[in-house]
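Box S1 | Example of a co-folding query
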Amino acid sequence: MARIIAGISSSHVPAIGAAIDNKQTEEPYWKRVFSGFEKSKRWMAETKPDVVIAIYNDHASAFSVELIPTFALGCAAEFPPADEGWGPRPVPVVKGHPALASHIATSAILDGFDLTIVNKMEVDHGLTVPLNLMFGSPKEWPCPVIPLAVNVVQYPPPTGQRCFDLGKAIRRAVDSFPEDLKVVIFGTGGMSHQISGPRAGLINSKFDKAFLDGMTKNPKALARMPHIEYMREAGAEGIELVMWLVMRGALDDKVKELYRFYTVPASNTAVGHIILQNGVKSAPRKPAGKSVVKKSAAKKKARKAA
Ligand code: DHB
Ligand code: FE
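Box S1 (continued) | Returned holo structure for fe (iii) ion
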């Protein structure tokens, strides 16, 4: 049976990709950002997932503004890097996992999530930058990746609750896939940032840190947060954070936070990153009532005997 072993969230700032492609990762500004992912890359290399499901958003690269699916699942065998204005990034072609992707499509659609099935698609920085941050810059990506694009570029994006519930549908789909696969799910984008308008450059570290806490401890409350609060607190592009909730919905209620990193800024954006281990058994509950009764009964007995 396939199982989701961990969820990872990470920002996807395009300038991070440019820093890699232009060999600027050792410059102090960028070293600060990349050093926060060293542990994560080691964890990934040790964990060796069989498949990654990457929740990301397309920035008018694959879909243009003429066609904007709310949830689009990549079912193709491969996804080439998109040309975002400077030619396609020099990164490997992303290899998909058509069998698991079609299974997720079937399971989720029959479950009430009308995903758009995408059989041909290029992928932009929204996907390739998180892959670099977690895998470095290998000749080939080490495992297949199933892209799931979420609309966060044109109003109205899906609600946080809908994203969270989609995560649950993905979880059910993965759990019912018969092949033994270790799956890691990525939620990408965020954290607070606003690219244009009077509030361009907005960053809200207090909000971001509370969001990171909520991801670990109280995701159900995060899922109820309305769009207006993302806009007000995290800026117009902060809405990308709803994609983290798809990832979180696919995990157990209780998870173990393995790692967290936060730095400000990279380009215009607050960079946040978290690794949540799934499948953590909660400690068995002590049958408190029973033991109290037993103890007092034992005490009574002892008193009688005395
Ligand atoms: C920036 C961040 C993004 O998430 C994005 O899609 C484009 C630009 C930025 O910080 O510049
Ligand atoms: Fe973005």
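The radius of gyration is 22 Å. The chain has eleven helices and ten strands.
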